[in-house]
């Protein structure tokens, strides 16, 4: 178990109050109708799953219910930074 600092509530809370949503900073294709099925599928389903430093989108589901970014190390679970979306 680890503690996460919510950038909106400005408190360190138990990880069970939060929910990981997705990889952070995904860029939606500018012309979804012009994408091939393969390009659209890669956007929807495939993620990097990087070992080491990784940016993720989380939500404070039990607290303020706002979305925010977390930069963390996936090997050590160390949270390097939290910031508003």
Please give a structural write-up.
The protein is mainly beta and 85 residues long. It has one domain (3-26, 45-84): 2-Layer Sandwich (Folate-binding fold), CATH 3.30.2270.10. 11% of the residues lie in helices and 39% in strands. The protein has one helix and six strands; from the N terminus they run E-E-E-H-E-E-E. Strands 3-4-5-6 form a four-stranded antiparallel beta sheet, with no helix packed on it. The longest helix is centred in the middle third of the chain and has 9 residues, at 37-45. The model has no long low-confidence stretch (mean pLDDT 91).
- Stated plainly, the CATH topology is called Folate-binding fold
Shape: elongated
* Cα end-to-end separation: 24 Å
Estimate percent helicity: 10-25%
User: Helical element count?
Assistant: 1
| DSSP strand tally | 6
Q: What series of H and E elements makes up the topology? A: EEEHEEE
Q: Class by helix and strand content?
A: mainly beta
Computed CA radius of gyration, to the nearest angstrom: 15 Å
Q: Can you tell me the CATH architecture? A: 2-Layer Sandwich
Show unreliable segments.
none
Biggest beta-sheet profile: 4 strands, antiparallel
Q: In total, how many domains does the architecture comprise?
A: 1
Major β-sheet strand ordering: 3-4-5-6
């Amino acid at each position: 178990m680890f503690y996460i600092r919510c950038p909106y509530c400005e408190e360190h809370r138990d990880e069970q109050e939060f929910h990981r949503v997705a990889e952070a900073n995904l860029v939606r294709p500018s012309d979804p109708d012009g994408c091939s099925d393969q390009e659209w599928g890669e956007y929807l389903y495939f993620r990097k799953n990087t070992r080491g430093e990784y940016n993720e989108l989380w939500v404070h589901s039990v607290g303020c219910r706002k979305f925010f970014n977390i930069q963390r190390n996936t090997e050590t679970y160390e949270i390097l930074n939290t910031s508003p979306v």
